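Cast an eye over my tokenised protein here and flag anything odd:

===
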Amino acid sequence: MKLSTLKKGLLPLSLSLSVVLSGCASFGKGIAEAVMEKTDSEDTRICQVRGKPFVGIAPSLLKKHGKTKVLMVHGVGDRLPGYSTEFLEKLAKELGVTAKSSTYKDIQLVSPLALETNLGNLRVTRLQNADESKELLFYELTWSEITRAQKELLGFDNSGEYSYKRAEVNDMLKKFGNDTGPDPIIYLGDTRVQILRAFSQSFCWMGKDGWDQLPNDSRVACATTDSFSEHTNQDDFIFVSHSLGSRITIDGLQRLASVLENPKKYSTTSYDVTPPARMRQLLQQKKIQIFMLSNQLPMLQLGRELPEIAGQKADYCLANGSRYSSRLFNETAIVAFSDPNDLLSYAIPHNFNEKYLDSRLCINITNVNINVAKVMDAFGMGKFASPMEAHLGYTKDDRVIAMIAKGIGNKQAAPLVKEKCEWTEITD
């Protein structure tokens, strides 16, 4: 067969293949677009709330006296100061406090017991509304500086010497695992003391009267002996934590409860300073809220000791209880958010509080079962949601933001929450 004849014969075939392949590509693209359009137009993600009603942050901003203070505690993975910016901007918009101070204040955290040891960074931002009648002080704790040096032990595995041998997706997942996996393990060791000191220092700075009493770009320790003034009684404390950050927050508060109940037992060798008696009296009048994103308390309880005081909620939290004067707070409302497609997130079981959480915190729990990642039909092979997005998407979800801002089960709850979320009240 002549070459010219062969070329003439192949030409129609190549054109036919081109048409078929382009048709398949268009067909596949059409299916993908149809799935995405359906997913975008029909938001069927679940949002189920079970527990007591909670008010969120908004009512605190309406008070004539006292300040609203929110502390953010991040979870696993290396973080840099400013990691919460997107969350803060969305929260500020929902609360109507979008006017920022011209700058923020960075405090390099250190302990009074070891001034040479860095404990991370506390970035404080002040937000107000247009007429300055509302004010929100937002404290962002970045503690990952404490674990960064230890995680360098795995740095060789991220280098080109090893990573080039992996498939691209596997290499991405391995690097993510090297960044996030070690933190819970490190926290179980001696480093936990430093991380809890970073938390206690942040809590101490929250006790200051306000913006003007905070240092600006300083490396200085906060001593509880000159913190928590009488004005602190009027302030509201709210905590927002993610994954391991929730364990850090609970451990930090339980540690504080032990020190305040028995200060002689805990000398300055185990705690920053001995808190003054008035600090305990001020805290015992407070009702605080903790919003736990990607809650991991059940998993992070595995292999750990039980709290010092457990199973005695009636004694510590009821006005006629035998240990009522030894409580840490008047009430602690925990709102635990978990996406069922988040492989590292768990709801808090109904019996978890009594056995595994300190009775002196007077805790009540509300579980929020919510899809923060979109669930899609994988072309008839089953439903699929990105586990990564399900773990990290809480701070971007408008329903989560709205519940933190305005709660649920009250008249001020956001319309979005009333429309998209089902609430079942659980009474004790």
About this structure: The chain has 17 helices and 14 strands. The mean pLDDT is 85. Residues 77 and 180 are 4 Å apart (CA to CA). The two ends are 90 Å apart (CA to CA).
